[in-house]
Amino acid sequence: MAAPTPSFTSADLLRFGIGLVGAFVSLKFLKEGTKTEKALMVLGGAVLSYVGTGPAVAYLKVANADGLVGFMVGLFGMAIIAKGYEVISAVDAKSLAQSILDRISKK
């Protein structure tokens, strides 16, 4: 039996598009990063909005607010992704891995 092919409805595209706009608005406040990094962060914010809008609307129990919630999830999703990237860039992975190995070997 063939696997079902995913289909995107206009509501799905609208949710992704609104999240994309929210991520672009958030991009204005991002000071660091190359164009490629910024583009990936915007895409990540839009994808987070696409995936997270439904659960966020259900959790907040707001009716007919998919657009606003999608925009906000895209806006803050982009900011969260940017901050996560900043933290990952600041971490000294070699010394962190060494301290973890030292801690494990002491036990």
SSE arrangement:
Blueprint: H1 10-27, H2 35-60, H3 66-90, H4 93-106
Structure description:
This protein is 78% helix and 0% strand. It is an all-alpha fold. The chain has one domain. The radius of gyration is 18 Å and the shape is extended. It starts with 9 loop residues before the first helix and ends with a helix. The mean pLDDT is 81.
The Cα radius of gyration reads 18 Å
Residue-averaged pLDDT, rounded? 81
Coarse structural class: mainly alpha
Helix content: over 70%
- The CA-CA distance between the termini, in Å, is 52 Å
Q: Strand share of the residues?
A: under 5%
Total helices: the number is 4
Domain module tally:
1
* Topology, number of strands: 0
What is the makeup of the main sheet? none
What are the low-pLDDT stretches, counting only 5+ consecutive residues below 50? none
Large-scale geometry: extended
Summary tags:
mainly alpha, single chain, 107 residues
Summarize the structure.
The chain contains four helices and no strands. The protein has helices spanning 10-27, 35-60, 66-90, 93-106. The longest helix has 26 residues, at 35-60.
